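Appendix B. Raw example, untouched.
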Amino acid sequence: MVKRRVSLFGATGSIGQSTVDLLKRHADKFEVVTVAANSRATELAKIAIDLSAQRAIVCDESTIADLRYALSGKNIEVSGGENALLEAASEKVDLVIMAISGAAGLRATFAAAETGADLALANKESIVCAGNLLMRKLQASRARLLPVDSEHNALFQILDGRDQSALQKVTLTASGGPFRNWSAEKIAAATPEDALAHPVWNMGEKISIDCATLINKGLELIEAQHIFALKPEQLDVLVHPQSTVHAFVSYSDGSVLAQMAKPDMRVAISACLSWPQRLASGVESLDLAKLQSLTFEQPDLQKFPCLKLVRSVMQQGGALPCILNAANEIAVSAFLRKAIGFNDIYRIIAATLENTQTQSLQKAFVALEDVLQTDRESRRIAASLLPYSEANLQRAIA
């Protein structure tokens, strides 16, 4: 049996760790070419050794020495910096798992898309910020996009090979986050510790805050719009606290198809690793008799205005999703440092969108550099809206 050649970018994050678990379980099926991370050199070195990777890369060049030390005596190539990352992403393999979080993953995602390899994409910003450009790039290289997000992977499994002309509506589910049953007053006083206490999923800090504001679900709507060529009016969200049903597809004949699984990212990742075959993920199948009940409710857009804001942005398109994403990253970072309140995340995003309109930033993108320039400028504007001392800090580290 010929092994699939795989490269994993973002190996030390939550998606990366789940992927590592699967690659170790099925070492006989995969040859790991590259593992990459931002800066956790010691952790990355262990992953590289465990997976018998050919190359290990840290984006933060200040940690290259630590990586070299941790891998001394091992037959594993060590490098660092963005150029090394892009070179590795441009190498032709069978499958690239792109789990670098944030806009930092844009260049690497586009480099991988040009190779024609299957692209298992967990970097939602690549599609949110540059969806039209990325989908055209994938089409040109005849690469196959395999969505890693549990909701999009559920849709991928439901829609694969089906006639979409009869499709009426696609519904993504949301757990509702830690504040689903909180009052608006209590939410306004929420701390980062409160927001990070997700009731179902174990994720990184940024995405945990995004789930608390429900902006994550809005960003997923934009992703689904691009991945599955859907109209904004065909997309909907339902809050589903049990996180068992990950997506629904409603058809014109009255049928509704759903994908169900335990809330464990290894289910979606395993589907990407071996599609169209199936791999044992290590996740137990659902015991339907024990579920007792599954509940669904409409999201409260008054308590979670970020979701409503994203819906508006999705309708308008253009550069707006990129601007919204950049402002959100700045605002979430400030909230995690306790420089702003929870509700200020929405206020900063909305104000950034308004400011960029007056500065003619909301124009269509022609190339990736347009996306990156808009992302940088939007971050600058968002940082300027932070409290005075925070704005100075943002400018100092920009």
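End of appendix B.
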